[in-house]
Amino acid sequence: MAERILVIEDEALVRDLVVLNLKHAGYEVVSEGTFATGAAALARADVSLAIVDVMLPGGEGFSLVRDARDAGLRCPILMLTARSEVQAKVRGLDCGADDYLTKPFDVTELLARVRSLLRRAAGTVAAPGPSFQVGDFTVRFDTGRATTNEGEVTLSDKELKLMELFSRNVDRVLSRADILEEVWGMDAFPTDRTIDKFILRLRRLFEPNAESPTHFITVRGRGYLFRP
Ligand code: CA
Description:
Blueprint (H helix, E strand, L loop, with lengths): L3 E5 L3 H13 L3 E5 L2 H9 L5 E5 L1 E2 L2 E2 H10 L6 E5 L4 H9 L4 E4 L4 H15 L9 E4 L2 E4 L4 E4 L2 E4 L2 H12 L4 E2 L1 H9 L7 H15 L9 E4 L3 E4 L2
Parallel strand pairs: 1-2, 1-3, 3-6, 6-7
Antiparallel strand pairs: 4-5, 8-9, 10-11, 12-14, 13-14
Helix pairs in contact: 2-3, 5-7, 6-7
The structure holds calcium ion.
Calcium ion binds next to strand 4.
């Protein structure tokens, strides 16, 4: 069954854009345009995820989310706001939201956040085991040490996170947006080239021949696929 998403946003243009794109991505979507109707819809607690605008007729999204959390609502909540200040972000996360997106936002980014929040909520992101095998080499997630073409090395925090992500997604194509979202987090977005540089580095460390990779495989136009 399709996951159900609640969108609480008063600006019709933004709401329609979000609703349309979520439906297109295969989600079931319900929407509300005010604080009061939004609060009532959240109280029904029958959605997998809620997207909540901050400035709503009748009150602030922050209080809406706070009240819903106090009432025991557990589903992931993504806040939308026109304010770009760090302050607004802090308030958003303080009130119990899980993630935060500043308007104007890119729809692709919104969808990536939604996927990521739903994945986390579904508990499909299993913790990696203490170690992981890549060909003849071993990565230890507990110590951050790995045996590689360059001998035993300590992986950087990002390299380790990237390896964890790959280890949880064997034989699945990960888009650059997925990788950015999972490894770099929600507000420090580097460029696609940064990711490519990290992949090159992992290939040098773990591929028998970095020129023709068999573990970290480029899937043209889509991203990367990992085969241990
Ligand atoms: Ca608004």
